[in-house]
Design brief:
The protein is mostly helical. It has 3 helices and no strands. Helix 1 packs antiparallel against helix 3. The protein starts with 7 loop residues before the first helix and ends in a 5-residue tail after the last helix. It is found in: Cell membrane.
Length: about 80
């Protein structure tokens, strides 16, 4: 087992919080995108900025691997 500067309880808590944050981010961005698609009143030029932010944030969250995030915190280095 690799040595870590965190105890097992802290590692489990960090992993849970990372997964929870990722799920909340994905769900929130999906709701923003769906609201923009379904409600025509939101289709103003100023709201396209928020749609762009939601789409880009959604893509970043999906592209970021939870395993890499976990390995970074647990092992202390980035996987390459």
């Amino acid at each position: 087992m690799s040595s870590s500067k965190f105890s097992l309880g802290v590692l489990v808590l960090l992993a849970f919080l990372m997964v929870l944050l990722s799920l909340v981010t994905i769900l929130g961005n999906i709701l923003v995108i769906l609201a923009f698609i379904l409600d025509r009143n939101l289709r103003h030029p100023s709201n396209y900025f928020f749609l762009n932010l939601a789409v880009s944030d959604f893509a970043v969250v999906l592209l970021m691997s939870l395993q890499e995030k976990g390995a970074t915190i647990i092992c202390g280095y980035y996987l390459k």
